[in-house]
Inverse folding.
């Protein structure tokens, strides 16, 4: 359905002022698109930080682990350090592995087919796109929350790994 803004001229006759521009719908679409862009940026940043965390965990195990595991006493600290190292690596790899179900853009052909019937009604196109992008955002958000939790686990495990290794190297950590 085409929307028209009407105005009354001096003789009292309605005249067509022109098609509505759909600025409100376009604003909603652009906000939804920015939300997806920010979400994608968050994922990229999380993966970058995870790479650094993975390297730190590996370096800590390499430099501190060799000396700490020569004569580990007490054994509980050695086991804690080893479990923390494995947890940090596993959580980091989980984050870095490609995820198939994250969507950050509409497919061009699907967009064309799905909105072809509304090609003469741009406000409706923008409205539908805004809703679709919001659905993508909601779907991605659940998955990104899992990745964020995995990052928290990896970072906590790294701290535990370093503290355990340091304790093994000295009489105590304080």
């Amino acid at each position: 359905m085409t929307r028209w803004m009407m105005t009354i001229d001096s003789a009292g006759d309605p005249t067509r002022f022109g098609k509505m521009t759909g600025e409100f719908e376009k604003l909603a679409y652009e906000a939804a698109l920015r939300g997806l862009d920010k979400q994608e940026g968050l994922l990229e940043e999380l993966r970058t930080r995870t790479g650094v965390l993975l390297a730190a965990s590996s370096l800590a195990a390499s430099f501190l682990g060799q000396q700490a595991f020569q004569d580990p006493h007490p054994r509980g600290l050695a086991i804690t350090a080893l479990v923390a190292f494995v947890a940090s690596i596993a959580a980091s790899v989980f984050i870095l592995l490609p995820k198939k179900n994250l969507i950050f853009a509409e497919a061009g052909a699907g967009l064309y087919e799905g909105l072809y019937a509304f090609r003469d009604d741009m406000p409706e196109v923008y409205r539908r796109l805004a809703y679709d992008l919001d659905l993508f955002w909601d779907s991605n958000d659940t998955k990104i929350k899992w990745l964020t939790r995995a990052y928290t686990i990896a970072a906590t495990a790294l701290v535990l790994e370093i503290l355990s290794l340091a304790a093994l190297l000295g009489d105590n950590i304080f």
Remarks:
- The first strand starts at residue 4 and ends at 8.
- Helices lie at 23-68, 75-96, 108-115, 122-169.
- The chain has a mean pLDDT of 84.
